[in-house]
Specification:
151 residues, single chain, mainly alpha, 0% strand
């Protein structure tokens, strides 16, 4: 924020300050208008757009540090069920794997394939047994294709 100089008779100083205040008001309003209601309520009392931006930046940079852990936990806790279409569940699992990849984590494809097979719903027990006795290594792409064809 420009420093106020009450004793300064130069109208440009006052005009600059008014322009800054107007711009800051608009910027803060623009950022706040994009927040969900719960966050808006938390950040509605912030005085300047810079303070608002820094508070949000700090909150989400801190959150992103641990987001790899959340992606890994989602993958480990992912459970397939018979009541939901298999390809929807395959897509959900692919999205989780993409999150893990986006976080810079690498998982061996063989491990991923075997985890996926173990996650198949109970109604897919025959397909799961078929895959267990396959001699040839299976790629994720081939496994997903096999699920689509067995569907």
């Amino acid at each position: 924020m420009p420093a106020t100089q009450e004793a300064n008779p130069d109208p440009r100083v006052h005009m600059t300050l008014e322009n800054w205040e107007q711009g800051d008001f608009l910027c803060r309003g623009y950022i706040q208008s994009r927040l969900v209601d719960q966050l808006f309520n938390v950040y509605s009392e912030v005085k300047t757009s810079k303070e608002l931006w820094e508070a949000l930046d700090k909150k989400y940079k801190t959150f992103n540090v641990g987001s790899g852990k959340f992606a890994a936990a989602k993958f480990l806790n992912f459970v397939m069920v018979d009541s939901k279409p298999i390809m929807d569940q395959v897509h959900d699992l692919q999205m989780i794997l993409q999150e893990i990849s986006d976080e810079g984590m690498k998982i061996c494809e063989t491990f991923t394939v075997n985890c996926f097979i173990e996650k198949l719903p109970p109604g897919w027990a025959d397909f799961k047994n078929y895959l267990a006795f396959k001699q040839k290594a299976l790629t994720l792409a081939n496994l997903f294709l096999g699920c689509r064809m067995s569907h």
